[in-house]
Amino acid sequence: MYFSFSLPLSASLCLSLPLSASLCCCCAGMNAAVRAVVRMGIYVGAKVYFVHEGYQGMVDGGDNIEEASWESVSSMLQVGGTVIGSARCKEFRSHEGRRKAAHHLVQRDITNLCVIGGDGSLTGANLFREEWSGLLEELVQQGLIDEEAAQNNSELHIVGMVGSIDNDFCGTDMTIGTDSALHRIIEVVDAIMTTAQSHQRTFVLEVMGRHCGYLALVSALACGADWVLIPEMPPEDGWEEQMCQKLSENRADKKRLNIIIVAEGAIDSHNKPITTDHIKELVVSCLGFDTRVTILGHVQRGGTPSAFDRILASRMGVEAVLALLEASASTPACVVSLCGNQAVRLPLMECVQMTQDVQKAMDEKNFEEAVRLRGSSFNVAVLNVGAPAAGMNAAVRSAVRVGITEGHKMFAVNDGFEGFYKGQVLGLRHMIVVISLWYHCHMINRLFAFLGVMELSAARDKYNEFCVPMVMVPATVSNNIPGSDLSIGADTALNAITDTCDRIKQSASGTKRRVFIIETMGGYCGYLASVGGLAAGADAVYIYEEPFDIRDLQSNVEHLTEKMKTGIQRGLVLRNENSNENFTTDFIYQLYSEEGKGVFDCRKNVLGHMQQGGAPSPFDRNFGTKIAAKAIQWISRKLKESYKEGKVFANTEDTACLLGMRRRAMVFQPVVQLKDETDFVHRIPKEQWWLKLRPLMKILAKYKTSYDVSDSGQLEHDGHGNLTG
C-alpha cells in the first residue's frame, strides 16, 4: 500500500529529546533520528517543532519550543550527540511541571510527541499522556486555556525511540547509539592490541554498562578478548584462579598479549563490584604480568555516528512519524524497535516493564531470569571463496572454535575451490585464528560460491564424497546473495563509504555550493550506493535496479539547483559502478558541471577497492561470529542425523543450505530452492528488501514521491501478552 500525503495534519508534531533523572541518553545517531522525523513530518504536511533541552524545555516553554524547517536539519548526519540539546528535569516529575508542559504544547496546538530517550524518559512520556485529559481540565479551570483549545487538543499521541549506548532496553535488538559506541571501543582495542603485543602486556579495559553487559560482551567477541565480566552473569566463586589459569595458558601458547574487558557494573556472585584495579592487582600478584588499565568513559558516547546508527535512526524516525499518523485515542503509546532486520512497533509500557524486570531480577540475584529477559566426532572443512570482505576472519575463527568444541577435527582449505581441487587442506587448532580478527580476509564467499554449493550438491548423484552436509555463510561487500538480507563485510564497506563522504563534504567547507559525484562498488547490486546514500545524506543515487534516463538526470540536476538556491551548500550524488553503461560517472559529472554553472561547481571521486579494505566493523565481527557458530552447530546436527552404518550419507535438499538473515530471523534455506530467486546474469537476487528504502532516501532529500507503508511496523505482543522480539 502506498500513501502520497498531500493534506496537512490537523495538529502539529513535537520532537523531544528528554533526559530522565536517572539516565543520560545522549548518544551518536540521535541527529539522524531528528532529521528523519523533521523531514518526514514536513513531507506529510505537519508542522514540526523542536523542544530544546528535553522535558526542561517543554516545562519552560518560550523559545525552547521552536518550529523546525527543512534546512534546519541539514549537515547534521555526521554530528554526534544531539543538536537540539538534552537536560535533566526534576520539575517534569511533578504534576505541576507536567501541567506547565501541557500548557506550552496546547498554545501551539501540539498533540503528537516523539520522544527519544531511555526507559525513564519514555515512562515519563507515557505518564504525561495518561494525565493529559486531566491536565487540560485543570488548565481550563485556571483560565489558562479555553474550552475550544481543550477540545481541539483533547488527545495526545506519543511514540518513542530508544537512544542508549548500553543497548539495555527490552524489545529491540539494537538501540540508537550502540553500534557507534562499539566502534569507539573496538578502535581503542585494536590500537591497544598493537602496543600490548609489542610489549607482552595484559590490558584491562572498562567499558560502560552499569546494568547491562552488552557493550562488554559484544566487544569481547569482536576483539577476541581472553576474559569478559558483565553484571548479568556474575562469575562463580573461584573465578580469579580460573581467569589467571586461562591467561597463563594463552601466554604459554606464545600469545603475546591478553585482553580483559569489564563492564562498569560487573559484580561477583555476592553482589560485590569487580573493579579494573582489583583485576590488575590480581594479575600482577598471581602471574607477574605487566598489566595496564584503560577506562574508556565518555569516549564511548561521542564521535561520528556509524553507518548502522544513521540508517537505524533514519528508519526509526520515519516509522515513528507513520505511527503518529495512524494513532487514535485507543492506541497505546508505542516504541519503535528493530527486530532482526525489520522495524516493529511495541507497546511502550510493556517494553519499559520488561526492562525494569531485568533490573529487579538482578537485584534479587536471579541472574538466569535476567539473561532470559534480555534471550560422536567428525571432520569439518572451512573454505572461503570470492573477493575480499572484511569480517570473514571473525566467522572463520568462530567456526573453528565452535567446531572443535563440538568435537570435530577442523580443516582449512587454502585458496577456495581451487585449493579444494588441489588438495590444499590444513588442520586447524584454536590459536591459528585468534589474532586474525582485525585483519580482513582475502578469500570470501560471493555469488559464485553460492553456485559452487549448488554444483557440489548437484554432483551428489555421481560422487558419494559430496554426500555430506554443506552450509554457506554469505559474505560480500555487495550484499547481493539471494536468501539473506545481510552479508558479512557489507557493514564495513558502508562505513568506509559514509566516512569518505563525510570527509569529502568537509573538504569543501571553505567553498560555496559544491556537488560531489561519487562512484561506489557493488557490481549490478545497488545496495552500497543506496544504503550508503541514506547514511551519508545523498541528494540522488543511481543504481541498475532502478532504470533512469536523461530526463531523470535533468530533473535531478534541476532539483539540486533549486535546493542550492535556498542556502544548502553541499550536494552529494552516488552512482553504482554498473548502474548504466552509457550514463557513466564521467558523463554524470560533466552533465552536473554544465547544468550547474553559476549555481554550484562539481567534483568526482571513485572510491574503488578502499570499500573492501580496512578493519572489520563491530557489526561485521559480531555478525560473522554468530552466523558461523550457528552454521557449525547446524553441521554438527546434520552429521549426527546422517551418520549410519559407520559413515555419513547426506543427499537431501535440506543438507546443502545457505544460512541467511531473513527479516527477523536466521534461516537455513536449501540452495536449490533459492535458484528461482536469483538473477544469475547480473548476480543479484530478483527481489531485494533494501529497495523499499529508496523512497525514504528521496523523501529525506526533499523529493515528492510516494512511500510504501505496507511493510511498516504494527503494534505487536507475544503469546504471553508481552512484546515480541
From TrEMBL:
GO terms for cellular component: 6-phosphofructokinase complex; membrane. Residues 1-21 form the signal peptide. The keyword tRNA-binding does not apply. It catalyses: beta-D-fructose 6-phosphate + ATP = beta-D-fructose 1,6-bisphosphate + ADP + H(+). The keyword Cytoplasm applies. Residues 27-323, 379-425, 444-635 form the Phosphofructokinase domain. Pfam families: PFK. This is 6-phosphofructokinase type C. One of its GO terms (biological process) is canonical glycolysis. Its cofactor is Mg(2+). It comes from the Eukaryota. One of its GO terms (molecular function) is fructose-6-phosphate binding. Keywords: Allosteric enzyme, ATP-binding, Cytoplasm, Glycolysis, Kinase, Magnesium, Metal-binding, Nucleotide-binding, Signal, Transferase. Pathway: Carbohydrate degradation; glycolysis; D-glyceraldehyde 3-phosphate and glycerone phosphate from D-glucose: step 3/4. SUPFAM superfamilies: Phosphofructokinase (SSF53784). InterPro entries: 6-Pfructokinase_euk, ATP_PFK, Phosphofructokinase_CS, Phosphofructokinase_dom, PKF_sf.
